[in-house]
Amino acid sequence: MKSYQITEYSHEMFRLLAKEGGTYIDATMGNGYDTLFLCRMAGETGTVLAFDIQQQALEATKTRLKECHMEEKAQLILDSHVHMDRYAEKDSIDGIYFNFGYLPGGDHALATRAETSAEAVYKGLELLKKGGVMALCIYSGKDTGFEEKDRILGLLKELDEKKYLVIVSSYYNRKKNPPVPAWIVKR
């Protein structure tokens, strides 16, 4: 592992847990770093669906993928992650990646929200194949994300242990509301 930042750490764990060459969803495309990661995971045979509600995120992701010659690997969708079930069938997805919060460099008022994020996680679990993996990078700090963090961690704790393995990690000695990385494996 090269870095201990949440996204790099989460990518490494996702790579260990998820099948390569599959079909993936980037539920929160942002600036395209996770979309690019998933395109590389998809390799020659897989595909990626990437969601965001902001045109700015879609354009940034399109540019990033083009620079890396990966623009054909992903379908970029200007829609909420709450609607991912409109674009994929139940039990058809190998991995889903969430990076909650706001678009870095974007409008902080346009951030993911507790209610819609929880709904998207539930829908994503329905889309995952058995053995599929969901990664969640959960942020809170200053005046944002606390309700969303509590809601997501609460729903993770309540998932049926016979159907899902849930791993939640922490930056135990970091101050000021460190991010929380989590992974779900569908049994």
UniProtKB/TrEMBL annotation:
Keywords: Methyltransferase, Transferase
Gene Ontology process terms (BP): methylation
Enzyme class, first EC level, given as a word: transferase
MF GO annotations: methyltransferase activity
Annotated signal sequence range: none
E.C. numbers: 2.1.1.199
InterPro entries attached to this UniProt entry: MnmM_MeTrfase (IPR010719), SAM-dependent_MTases_sf (IPR029063)
Statement: the UniProt record of this protein carries the keyword Plastid: no
Protein name per the record: 16S rRNA (Cytosine(1402)-N(4))-methyltransferase
Organism, scientific name: Candidatus Blautia merdavium
Name of encoding gene: mraW
